[in-house]
Amino acid sequence: MAIIQKLITLVRGTATEAGQAIVDVNALKILDQEIRDADTALVNSRTDLTRLMAERKLAGDKLQAKEDKLKEYNSYIQQLIDKNNQTDALAVAAKVASLENDVAADKSTLSGMDANITKLQGSIRQAQSTIDQLKRQVDTVKATASVQRAQEAISASTSGSNVKLHTAMDSLKRLEEKQAFKAAQIDAANQLEAQGDDAELQQRLQAAGVLPGATAANDVLARFKKADV
Asked: Are 51 and 109 members of one domain?
């Protein structure tokens, strides 16, 4: 029984870790959605506030009308008393009493509405400030994530580039060696060609007897001519 309980605990722990991993991977998406939900709730709160303010205005207008009527009736009572008309004065006084009760009740209602409006306005300001701050923090987190992704890409690219760079350097070295060998071949050919030209010239100079120790054909003929004489 204890083993089964431990297995259940293990499954629950694994599920929790997996769930937390999913949340971590999608943290920014979840946070963006939560901010959108908060914005929607804030819009609804503003709508409720405007409706409450509209109701308060209507209630205030009705209260003002009752107060104006109350002043009017009060003036009637004074006129009726001056005319010694107690019966009508009492009837108007009853109406005044009813209006005074209504005015008192309306003022209490308006006072409560004003308190609610003030409280709701404060809550909306606080919520807006919190949402704005949260958005700025999310922007910072996103910017940091972008920079880190760029740094990772640069790091990975640099690692790959090092391998490619070594390969390129090897290819360049082989190319330079081939070029140096080709240049040496061309130089050797030029030297051979120059040596060929020099050999031909040397032979001509040798035949002309110009070179030191060289004997020309004319010299040989000259010797024979001297011998005949």
From this structure: yes
